[in-house]
Amino acid sequence: MKEEIGRVGKEQQFHDSWAEQVDVSTIDVDKIHSALTSPELRYIHRQLGDLAGLDLLDLGCGLGEASVGFALRGARVTASDLSPGMLAATAELAERYGVSVKTHLSTAENLEFDAGAEFDIVYAGNLLHHVDVEETVKRIAGVVKSGGRFVSWDPLKYNPVINVYRKMASAVRTEDEHPLGSDDLKIVEKYFSDVEFRFFWLFTLVVFLLMFLIDWRNPSAERFWKIVVDESDRWSWLYVPLAKLDQLVLGLIPGFRWLCWNVVIVARK
Q1: Based on the structure, what is the number of domains in the chain?
Q2: N or C, where is the chain less crowded by C-beta within 10 Å?
Q3: What does pTM read for this prediction?
Q4: Range of the domain at 191
């Protein structure tokens, strides 16, 4: 009988397949880091400030868009992922942009760095909802320098409309994904001090609804969270006022933050 592939094996296969389908030459790193519809990364850059000369680990680096963007801003970047295909794409992207990025093959739960390895910053973009949260955060805390920072962003699990989308988008998601809940955020507070959470995409989610209703795009064939960045100029007329509405409503009614799509975590050790 053929041995069943475990969670890690499924994740690796899924992301290797994804990497094979991507033409790295089409990736616009600058846009991914600065687009209006990339509020999570823009916020993270504001929080991190000057990266020149800092050692940064991009954990779960994927195609390398964040790794290369951080390297362009002067960080010494190590890009880690469980997918050899994603690491190959990251190396190719770094070469195209003329920056140096060190690649490292490992899971997030078992980083496999040499003893004593430490980083000023550990960044994890859309990673925690793929992994064992506590084990991963514990590992991250072990490689962040004293006074260093852990930053990440991931989807939340509470919005019922988003959960309908997730069921429709099954082909572009892995079956073991688990969007974060309040208990997961408490785990970060267990291992880090000075933890801040910032929530994004509430009324701005209307943009995704229009992508489906007007463009008739298939959420199980296209990654909407990638398209919305690629087409940021097209949607700016709608995104800008809705983002202001998000800020106003979340300031007045903090409980609505749990209905947002994404949460950004900024923590200091």
Answers
A1: 1
A2: N
A3: 0.94
A4: 7-157+174-201+256-268
